Amino acid sequence: QVQLVESGGGLVQAGGSLRLSCAASGSIVRINDMGWYRQAPGKQRELVATITSDGSTNYANSMKGRFTISRDFAKNTVYLQMNSLKPEDTGVYFCSAEILSTYQGRWWGQGTQVTVSS
């Protein structure tokens, strides 16, 4: 099977930075796109950023210029560098990837909490 494991969340003051990591492991034939999503308290899960297998990136408007998504293809790992954090960035951040394993599907990590204090 496939597993996505996130790390790097925590508590940070407004204006600070955090770097999230997500490593995919298991029976992986190929990983297509990878991405980050977040869910704030009382809100629906929303897109943060995605990166394709050829390195093309896409960001939600509110994250452009502050967040950077990157990928280490050799390590099956995706990163999210978050700078100039705001209290409204608080939430649980989930990693997701479209992976060809024994079948092609979308996998999700368990989430990592990011809390930005004002």
Write a structural description:
The model has no long low-confidence stretch (mean pLDDT 96). The chain is built from no helices and eleven strands. It has 118 residues and is mostly beta strands. The protein has strands at 2-7, 10-13, 18-26, 30-39, 46-51, 57-59, 67-72, 77-82, 91-100, 104-108, 112-117. Strands 2, 4, 5, 6, 9, 10 and 11 form a seven-stranded mixed beta sheet that branches. The chain is globular, with a radius of gyration of 14 Å.
Please state the average pLDDT score.
96
Distance between the termini: 41 Å
* Radius of gyration of CA atoms, rounded to a whole number: 14 Å
User: How many beta strands in the DSSP annotation?
Assistant: 11
Assembly state:
single chain
Uncertain regions: pLDDT < 50 for 5+ in a row? none
Task: Report helical residue fraction.
Answer: under 10%
| Secondary structure tally, helices | 0
Largest sheet: 7 strands, mixed
Series of secondary-structure elements, N-terminal to C-terminal: EEEEEEEEEEE
What is the 3D form?
A: globular
**Structure class:** mainly beta
State which percent range the strand residues make up: over 45%
Short structural description:
The protein has 118 residues and is mainly β. Helix content is 0%, strand content 60%.
SSE map:
Blueprint: E1 2-7, E2 10-13, E3 18-26, E4 30-39, E5 46-51, E6 57-59, E7 67-72, E8 77-82, E9 91-100, E10 104-108, E11 112-117
Parallel strand pairs: 2-11
Antiparallel strand pairs: 1-3, 3-8, 4-5, 4-9, 5-6, 7-8, 9-10, 9-11
Question: What are the key terms here?
Answer:
118 residues; mainly beta; 4-stranded antiparallel sheet; globular
